[in-house]
Design goal:
The complex is a heterodimer. Chain A folds into 2 domains: 10-129, Glutathione S-transferase Yfyf (Class Pi), Chain A, domain 2 (Up-down Bundle), CATH 1.20.1050.140; 137-290, Rossmann fold (3-Layer(aba) Sandwich), CATH 3.40.50.11810. Chain A contains 14 helices and 8 strands. In chain A, the strands form 2 sheets. A 4-stranded parallel β-sheet of chain A has the order 2-1-3-4, with helices on both faces. Chain A has a 4-stranded parallel β-sheet with strand order 6-5-7-8, sandwiched between helices. In chain A, 45% of the residues lie in helices and 10% in strands. Chain B is an all-alpha fold. Chain B folds into 2 domains: 6-70, no CATH class; 75-125, no CATH class. Chain B has 8 helices and no strands. The two termini of chain B are 17 Å apart. The relative contact order of chain B is 0.13. The chains are: A alpha/beta, B mainly alpha. At the A-B interface, helix 1, helix 2, helix 3, helix 4 and helix 5 of A face helix 4, helix 5, helix 6, helix 7 and helix 8 of B.
């Protein structure tokens, strides 16, 4: 079994939202689906998809591999490669694919999946949205109808790029894919020097003040931009949802944080509500258009 | 996903020098790998930067996992683990999520059944949860 690299031309993926986006980031799922539909890519939901297994289950049990393999097997039965939207799920599913190249382990796992009439046989490819979009730059460029005159800072989803032997995509230390994609919108990219650093969101599972300090580091470095753009639910959880706690009494420093497909979708002329964008960002964009 | 283990660590400190938590004053597994004694294995975002820069290619992720399973998990990790065992997700996701989806014009999703979750995590779930000391291991 080896990872089958699907040609982007196939243009169809099983959509794996992961726990966080499924629970509370409908805007991310919506904007991802609308953007990719506009680019001719079909995303199909995965009925009964479950947690990817890492890092939560992995921190307690080797059985983390079971839910990961289960999700891979669901997609394999659908005959589709998987599109992910967060860093952690991407890394977990890709690591599981590598682990399952061990025939003996795969056999043990498949015995456990057999009662569900599922198995990992050939394996499917797992691609984070940024990786899929990176292969669609020509299509994106052709469809930009509303160039954005915004200054944009970026933050990369770490686990989509590291470690290199798992991610097998872009530069693990200084990736460029999001720069290239964001630049297609006409926006000016503001280099922050920390775009490749972790956001620190997961620290909130063990040290909340440290998570807020990490978020503040990232946001302060990005203040020269109009908006910050991320590509992972975990980053968004800290940098957007917890931004009030990060700034505290310095609330006036708050900056809008968008998901990458929201930024790209705007440049393609999709309506803000199709991208799950609220009034405050729409206001910012009006300023952009009329300045 | 490397074969190199903690025995190959030379305590060069490369991992610690790139660790964001360390830069912010925290002490992660990279403190241990750099010869320090004060560290907290549950403090890590899995950003994999330490893994990427380790000149010996030590499987640092595995070191963290081994240390976590020996120690006491934080309350949020315990809660997330229990959620996975009960709901199949790290959060308590129920059918109500489909009402939220409808508000965004998203199709309803079929959530994973508890029966499937029990089947997938039958050993991890035994006697669960919480203390690293009595974690079930759950070899696959």
């Amino acid at each position: 079994m080896g990872e089958q690299v699907q040609e982007i031309g196939d243009r169809q993926f099983a959509f794996y939202p992961g726990c966080l986006v499924l629970q509370r980031m409908q805007q991310y799922e919506l904007s991802t689906k609308r953007l990719l539909a506009a680019l001719g890519v079909t995303l199909t939901d995965m009925p009964e998809a479950a947690c990817c297994g890492a890092p939560v289950v992995e921190s307690f049990s080797d059985e983390w591999l079971l839910p990961a393999a289960y999700n891979l097997a669901l997609a394999e039965r659908m005959g589709l490669d998987i599109l992910t939207v967060c860093g952690s799920c991407t890394n977990s599913l890709k690591r599981a694919l590598l682990a399952l190249q061990d025939a003996a382990l795969r056999e043990r796992v498949n015995r456990r999946l057999a009662p569900l009439d599922l198995e990992v046989e050939k394996g499917v490819a797992v691609r984070h949205q940024v990786q899929v979009l990176a292969g669609l730059q020509d299509a994106l460029r052709e469809r930009v109808v509303a160039p954005l005159r915004l200054k944009v800072a970026l933050t990369y989803p770490c686990q989509v790029f590291r470690p290199a032997e798992v991610a097998a995509f872009d530069d693990p230390l200084r990736p460029r894919a999001m720069h290239d994609l964001a630049a297609l919108t006409g926006a000016t990219i503001v280099e922050t020097g920390v775009e490749w650093e972790c956001c620190g969101s997961s620290y909130s599972m063990s040290d909340q003040p440290l998570a807020l300090a990490a978020g503040r580091r990232k946001l302060e470095a990005s203040l020269g931009a109009d908006i910050l753009v991320d590509g992972c639910g975990n980053c968004h959880l800290l940098l957007q949802r917890m931004q009030g706690a990060i700034w505290g009494e310095q609330e006036h420093r708050r900056m809008p944080v968008l998901f990458l497909p929201q930024l790209l979708g705007l440049a393609l002329g999709l309506a803000p509500e199709e991208l799950g964008l609220g009034g405050s960002v729409a206001k910012l964009l009006r300023r952009d258009r009329h300045d | 996903m490397t074969e190199s283990t903690i025995e190959n660590c030379t305590q060069c400190g490369a991992c610690r020098s790139v660790c964001l938590a360390e830069k912010l004053g925290g002490h992660t597994i990279t403190s241990l790998l750099s010869g320090g004694e004060e560290y907290f294995a549950w403090l890590c975002s899995c950003c994999q930067l330490c893994q990427e820069v380790c000149p010996e290619g030590v499987d640092i992720q595995q070191v963290i996992i081994d240390e976590r399973r020996k120690g006491q998990p934080t309350v949020p990790y315990q809660r997330s683990f229990r959620n996975v065992l009960r709901y199949g997700y790290a959060f308590a996701i129920t059918e109500e999520v489909n009402e939220l989806r409808a508000a965004y014009g998203l199709e309803p999703v079929e959530l994973v059944s508890q029966e499937r979750v029990r089947l997938l995590l039958r050993r991890a779930g035994e006697g669960c949860a919480g203390s690293g000391q009595d974690h079930p291991g759950g070899e696959v």
